[in-house]
């Protein structure tokens, strides 16, 4: 398998962490989707990363689809329950973490891709409110649990950890560590895992 992605993308990081936790061999090919010579369209008509090129040449897109598939390949470090409510709960954690990222990414693109005079302060404020509301919700859901799903490390922790890491990387002015001590404790614990150490955004 070959993973097409960037070193900065939190969605790509999520897949990289899962690959490492599952001990799956996969070539990582760095692609800058914003470069004039990008070839991402060969792999994903949406022009996004990550894309996972399979052994037969077919391509799987979207981080949520990819990590769910990867978890089926080996029983090592199972990250999702087999079915039912517990599985749906984990996927809801992932959806919230990814949705928070979507809002934050929108703000970053507005700031970096549009001239200052064309940027919408109102629209960016709306997106940042989503980020703050999501952080509060993640913190409330986590409570004093050791991990998002309770006592077991799961895909929920991977998704939340990648989202928090990217916020620190791109939005250091967001004081989520001070505002939500339990999320900071979770992220510090996750950061000790080799899979997280090897995929710090850059």
From TrEMBL:
Domain of life of the native organism: Bacteria
Which parts of the chain span the membrane according to its record?
A: none
The record's listing under Gene3D superfamilies reads: 1.20.1050.10, Glutaredoxin
Q: Which CDD domains match?
A: GST_C_6
Q: Which residues form the GST C-terminal domain?
A: 83-202
Recorded hits in Pfam families, A to Z, give: GST_C_2, GST_N_3
Q: Where is the GST N-terminal domain?
A: 1-78
State the SUPFAM superfamilies in the record.
Answer: GST C-terminal domain-like (SSF47616), Thioredoxin-like (SSF52833)
Q: Provide the protein name.
A: Glutathione S-transferase
Organism taxonomic ancestry: Bacteria, Pseudomonadati, Pseudomonadota, Betaproteobacteria, Burkholderiales
